[in-house]
Design goal:
With 231 residues, the chain is an alpha/beta fold. The chain contains 10 helices and 5 strands; from the N terminus they run E-H-E-H-E-H-H-E-H-E-H-H-H-H-H.
């Protein structure tokens, strides 16, 4: 079954999706959880998300994080992004299987186009849409501080914002997802503080950090603190 989170208020969409994940895991402790970043989305991983289960793990909770890249003009250095763009069609090809699955599949897609939102919502069990008003005060200032610190390449501020968010109670997975989203945003839009090859390395480093933590390395929150001081 599909749960779709989208809308123009990027921070709120992401926060609400991870809040939903946290509540679902508290309600059903034996629920196995996995987050698929755009780079992880393949035919194989989506088939596994739809079909996996068994004697000891009855259900999976899978969050597909921002699989639809923002349309942009490709440069020669971004030629590899053509493969990245294919994730959108891969997800769409598996919509029926994901919708029919007993597993909970969250599609987190801020700024999803109206056409794609309509197509996915038609197959979703629930649709959650959070659009930003034309003018509003920033409700979650530390979230903006987190991504701004990364964009500015300020290691001290980034370390501080990670600690502040963890103390406030945000899940490490949520913070990692937000940081990885910002890394991809830097790749797509460019940055004065990050060269194109550096922002791509940044994205890969965050993926490796999460994988190492899942393999039993340093706890994710502590790993992000140490990583922040190394950027």
């Amino acid at each position: 079954m599909i749960y779709l989170f989208h809308g123009t208020d990027v921070d709120r969409v992401r926060a609400k999706a991870f809040e939903w994940v946290k509540k679902a895991r508290e309600k059903e402790p034996n629920l196995a959880y996995a987050r698929l970043a755009r780079e992880d989305v393949t035919d194989a991983t989506l088939e596994e998300a739809a079909l996996s289960g068994g004697l000891f793990i009855k259900r999976l909770l899978v969050l597909i994080d921002d699989p639809f890249p923002v349309a942009r003009t490709k440069t020669e250095e971004e030629a590899e992004s053509e493969e990245e763009d294919s994730t959108a069609s891969i997800v769409e090809e598996h919509l029926d299987a994901l919708a029919a699955s007993d597993n909970a599949i969250i599609i987190l897609a801020p700024k999803l186009t109206a056409a794609k939102a309509k197509k996915i919502a038609a197959k979703a069990k629930m649709e959650y849409k959070f659009d930003a008003p034309t003018a509003r005060a920033d409700v979650r200032g530390f979230n903006s501080g987190l991504v701004n610190a990364l964009a500015a390449r300020s290691r001290e501020k980034l370390w501080l914002e990670i600690n502040r968010a963890l103390l406030t109670g945000d899940a490490p997975e949520m913070l990692h997802g937000l940081l990885h989203w910002k890394a991809r945003d830097l790749m797509e839009k460019g940055s004065r503080a990050w060269k194109p090859e550096e922002s791509r390395s940044l994205s890969l480093a965050l993926i490796e950090l999460l994988q190492e933590s899942r393999r039993g390395g340093l706890e994710l929150g502590l790993a992000m603190e140490r990583w922040a001081l190394s950027i």
